[in-house]
Amino acid sequence: EAGVAQSPRYKIIEKRQSVAFWCNPISGHATLYWYQQILGQGPKLLIQFQNNGVVDDSQLPKDRFSAERLKGVDSTLKIQPAKLEDSAVYLCASSKTSDSYNEQFFGPGTRLTVL
Amino acid sequence: GQQVMQIPQYQHVQEGEDFTTYCNSSTTLSNIQWYKQRPGGHPVFLIQLVKSGEVKKQKRLTFQFGEAKKNSSLHITATQTTDVGTYFCAGARSNDYKLSFGAGTTVTVRA
């Protein structure tokens, strides 16, 4: 079974630039999560999708971050404009359904450095 | 802020020794999951605890859920170099079932 795919693996940009990350979840998984993991911290949920609908985006900085999952499969996360404090690893995860009892499968992440 | 608190933040262990890491919540949890993240890797699911007082074992790893469902522990016996990494607990509050990750315990092993 193929795992969660993410690209790019690494990205270096200057502050105020824009960046986009892509995620393809495990086939058949209805729920997709985007997490931000700052060095030395645990993953922080940015947004959770159930199929193509948003379940939770309460911690997404909506003035600069946006995410979509138009066809209920793959997803993109965008930052525009980036700030220095956005430097982190952005993890995508998927699970079969949206309830908290489901195991989450994580992708390899995208390491973003904002200069 | 973090819903679940993990202690210690760092654990330096001599190979062959035992250690325990703890996860604490101020609110009752419906369930708790444990994940392991190797250096440079991504979190990988280890186990889930649901019932009050539940104890589960995976080889040298023992996971426990407190009676009040507000805390959990991971105990590793006879630590090996393969145990290196960061262990995260993720708890879901009983009132909204949203999973929240702790800051993790980073384990290093001295050979």
In round numbers, the mean pLDDT of chain B is 95
Largest sheet of chain A: 7 strands, mixed
Which regions of chain A have little confidence, pLDDT < 50, spanning 5+ residues? none
Distance between the ends of chain A = 37 Å
The count of helical stretches of chain B stands at: 0
Number of strands of chain B: 11
The CATH homologous superfamily of chain A is termed: Immunoglobulins
Q: In percent, how much strand structure appears in the residues of chain A?
A: over 45%
Biggest interface pair, counts: A-B, 20 and 23 residues
Structural domain tally of chain A: 1
Helix- and strand-based class of chain B? mainly beta
Instruction: Give the averaged pLDDT of chain A, no decimals.
Output: 95
CA gyration radius of chain B, whole angstroms: 13 Å
Backbone shape of chain B: globular
Q: How much helix is in the residues of chain A?
A: under 10%
How far apart are the termini of chain B? 36 Å
The CATH homology group name of chain B: Immunoglobulins
CATH topology-level fold name of chain B: Immunoglobulin-like
Provide the CATH top-level class of chain A. Mainly Beta
How much of the sequence lies in strands of chain B comes to over 45%
Protein architecture, described:
The complex is a heterodimer of chains A (115) and B (111). Chain A has 115 residues and is an all-beta fold. Chain A has a single domain, classed as Sandwich (Immunoglobulin-like). Chain A is 0% helix and 48% strand. Chain A contains no helices and eleven strands. Chain A has strands spanning 5-7, 10-13, 19-24, 31-37, 44-50, 53-56, 65-68, 75-79, 88-95, 105-106, 110-114. In chain A, the strands form two sheets. In chain A, strands 2, 4, 5, 6, 9, 10 and 11 form a seven-stranded mixed beta sheet that branches. A four-stranded antiparallel beta sheet of chain A has the order 1-3-8-7, with no helix packed on it. Chain B is mainly β and 111 residues long. Chain B has a single domain (4-110), classed as Immunoglobulin-like. Chain B has strands at 4-7, 10-14, 19-25, 29-37, 44-49, 55-58, 61-65, 71-76, 85-93, 99-101, 105-110. In chain B, the strands form two sheets. In chain B, strands 2, 4, 5, 9, 10 and 11 form a six-stranded mixed beta sheet that branches. Chain B has a five-stranded antiparallel beta sheet with strand order 1-3-8-7-6, with no helix packed on it. In chain B, strand 6 and strand 7 form a beta hairpin. Chain B is globular. Classes of the chains: A mainly beta (115), B mainly beta (111). Chains A and B meet through strand 10 of A and strand 4, strand 5, strand 9 and strand 10 of B.
